[in-house]
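for the record, two folds in this file. i put them one after another cuz i was lazy. first one right below, seq on top, C-alpha cells after. the second one comes after a little note so u can tell where it starts
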Amino acid sequence: MLWIIYSSKYDEEADNPAKRMLKEALDQGLDAKLLYFNYFKIENGNLYYNDKKITNFPKVAFLRCNEIWLAEYLESKNVHVINNAFCIKHCKDKYLTHKIVDSLGYKGIKTILLKDNSYSDLKNIFGEEFILKIRDGLQGRDIYLIENEEEFNEVIKTIDTANFLAQEYVKSSYGRDVRLYFCGDEFIAACERRNEFSFISNIAQGGLTYEVNLNSDVINMARKIKRALQGEIITIDFVYGYDELLFCEANTNAGFQSFAYLGYDMRKIFMKYIKQFA
C-alpha cells in the first residue's frame, strides 16, 4: 500500500497534480491512495484522518508536503516515508541545510542568521549588496535583494527577523541557477533556470528552463549532499560563482515543471522508484 500525501488546496485546481500523481501510481499497478495532510491529526498518540482513527498503515508514504510531524509519526509505525522527517527538517530550514553542507567541506553561499544585525553589520560581512531570505521559503517567495541601507530599513519593518537569513549576493549568478534532480541514488537530470527580469530564477517567479550538462564532479558532490540530508526524491541547487558552482539549497518537495518542459516524465520516474518499497 502506498499513501500519496498532498495539501487539499490542490482539490480546488481543475488540473489537479495530486490526482495525476495518483493516476500514475495506479497505472503502474500500485495499491495507492491519495490523502491530504491537513485532514490528519494526532490525538492521544493515535493518528486520525477526517476524524477516523487509522489502524492500518501503508508500507510507503510519499509526502508531497513538508509536514515533519506527520513524517515522524508514520516513521514510528515503520512506514517508509519519502522523504523522511530528518530530510524535511534539514531542507525546509535553509540554515540547517547550509550547516550540513559546510560540515562536508563544500563551498556554498555565505549564510548567517539575520537576528538583530544592522545594515552596517551585514555590509561588513557581505558588502553593500546582500540577500535577505526566509528560512523556510518556497518558490522564490520572501527573498529580498538589498542594495542600500534605505531598502534594508524598509524590508526590516515588514518581516520577522528571527525567521530570516542573510546571504551573500552572487552577482555572477543573477537570475540563474542549476537544479539537479535525484531519485534514490540515481541522478535523473539537471537544468538551468534563467530569469532575465529578476535575480530570482524560480519558474514560479517567471524563470525559464534549459537542460544543462554537468561534469561528474558536480553530480557526485550533489549526490553526497543528498545522502547527508537523507534525501530520496530531492533536488540540489547551485548558483554560479565567479569560477565554480556554489551550493544554494536543497528541496524535498520541489516542483518538477522545469524537467517536464525538458521531456522528463517525472511522475513515472518517481513511481518506478517507489514501487520497490511498496
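(here's the note) second protein begins now
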Amino acid sequence: MTLRDLPKFEMFEEGSQIRRSAKSISANIVEGYGRRRYKQEFIRFLVFAHASCGETIEHLEMVFETGSLTNELVYRDLSAQLDLLGRKLNVFIETVGRSHRPGRDNISNPASRIPHLVP
C-alpha cells in the first residue's frame, strides 16, 4: 500500500499514523536489541514493538472500514502480514524471557552453535 491509495485527507492523518506506527515496530526491535545486555530492557522494547504492531493493525482497519482504503486485497494482505509479525514477536518475547543470555562470553566456541559456521 502506498499513501497514494488513500484520499488526500487521509494521507496526512491516518496515513501518517500508519507510517509512524509501522516504523516504530522495527525501531523498537533495534533499540531493544541494542539494550540486550539487560534482559528486562530488551523485553520492554520488544513489548513496545508488539504494541506498535497492534496500533498499525488498528489504523489499517480504520482506513478500510471507513472506506478510505478500498482495495480489499491490499487490506487483507497487510493485515495478514501484521498478524504474523505480532505472533512472531510474541514468540520472540517469550523466548527472550525464558532463555536470554546477554553475552557470548559463556560460549566456548560461538561458531559451534551455528551449524553453517562450523568448518
